[in-house]
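Protocol step 4 of 6: record predicted structures for both targets in the notebook before any analysis. Target 1:
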Amino acid sequence: MKIAIDAMGGDHAPTVNIVGARDALKKYPDIETIFLVGKSELLSKEIEEHQLNDPRVIIVEAPDVVEMHESGAKALRRKKKSSISIATDMVKSGDADAVVSAGNTGASVAAATVKLRTLRGVERAGIASAIPNEYGICQLLDAGANPEAKPEHLVTYAVMGAVYSHYVLGVKQPKIGIMSNGEEDEKGTKFTKETFALIKDLESSGKAPFDFVGNVEGHDLFESDLNVVLCDGFTGNIILKSCEATAKAMSKWLKVEFKRNPLRILGAIIAKGAFKAVKKKSSYEYVGGSPLLGVNGVCIIGHGGSSALAIENAIRVARETVTLKVNPHIEEMLDRINPGS
């Protein structure tokens, strides 16, 4: 297996990408090659500093960098030799099996969509972001790739999310819901109502690879036994960033309150193990990265603030997605649902 990493992508690049690659190579001996794509002189210095002495690492020169604040699609057109562009080209040419980037999300989506195209039967790709809940992992799909989605796009997301949940997360029969403003069937906008009808029809046909639970609300992401929650990319991105901000705020508030007196400090020390366990369950570092489902290749998008641990786990997600043949399974399932399309 060969993985291309956008080594210049992310708030803490290239250090976290190099350390994450180093740790992943130690853990996964089946990774044949990791390509570090970026400014070779800088990468060489970082590799030496962080003792990445592994013959499986190859530096690929990319003189340009798409910055986090830039418009992804526009920057991609101007910077044809950017690290994310060249890393994605390696997947297109077959030199790499997957691309991992913690850089500009818009650029990652644009590069994968334009260069790799979509899978057979897929019109729009979607980002599947993991939300930890009481029952395991719930995939929020789409989390930002397709802000102006159509109802039929969400039907495809339902299939792709179910396939990913089944083959990667080990869910026998995934449960899927539509994000709405109420659980009743008649609730929602015209968009969500049309989506509801299409998915209900698919389930009624007996061809759906999932159980459709209907409309769900925001609290269901954390409290209900759900595997995939569907929404357009605009809504999904807002939900995702709101969840992240809430988690950070709660962490800060707890630290302030625990420091108010010695007794609380003692209580915090006693509960340290519990806090670590909750952090591990909820942190994007341990989740790794979000797969861009629907493109004809494996593209894993990491958080812009990714640490080395997050990059290591993003590489793990790429490895699992390739090894478990998620894309062929998606095409197979879509062919079964829409024969001859």
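Target 2:
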Amino acid sequence: MDEHRIKYIQCGDVQIAASCETNCERKTEVYHPSTLLLYTQKGNLHITTKDQSYIIASGEYAVLKKYTEATMFKTWSEEEREAKTYGFGLTNEFLERVISEISLPNKKSLSESFFKLKATKKLDALMESIILHVDTNDELDKKLVEQKTIEALKALAEADVKILEIFHEFSIKQQGDLEKLMKHNFLYKIPLKVLAVQSGRSLSTFNRDFKKLFNDTPHNWIKKQRLYFAKKMMKEHKMKPSHVYLESGFEDLAHFSKAFKKQFNKTPRDFYKSIL
């Protein structure tokens, strides 16, 4: 049976790390508010932006600039049987704190949105720490991860000074496309004040722009999108309600069932039976 498993963990009130295991070639569209440090542990991660296509092979690292619209999918060998990747979100504030402890070269403007990183012992140590916490569902120790990230970036800079230029460029504040941000991230449990910051707006500006764009409150809009996503997953991928509610961003099956029935006048169980 095809499976697609995603796990997320928090660092403070920000969701910054995730693992994804899959043995189905499902394409995922992303528009992430944080720069992503990506690592492929098994298989290959394929990334396509509007400019180019890339592959992060097993054992390789790369960074994808924030607010980059991209499509991702995974492939694997017959021996591997599945692909497994990890993502680590580097927020503007996090990058700024890291960079402040490292001497930057002359700052340059970079047009690229994707860069491969050379593996180092300290980068491997950082990723091993993240993997341990993701796989055990533990919240990351913010200070520990920050220190490991500083050590990893210093090691990378020793090998290639351009890395620091990349992280400086990627940490510059800017407003993201609110429609793309919400449509690609409504499944994630992110507080509204954090969403506002991630979009490059104050909370009041975020709420005003959101109402103007979607003619709804963030809370109601997010709940509706999650319910329509759950309905789609049951219909197109035959996912059972007991599995789909978690992947749809709900934490409680009873709450999901109640909200689904209110929205569609049918319980998830009855809807699932009707499409078999």
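Step 5 preliminary note on target 2. Residues 218-237 form the longest helix (20 residues). The mean pLDDT is 82.
Proceed to step 6 after PI sign-off.
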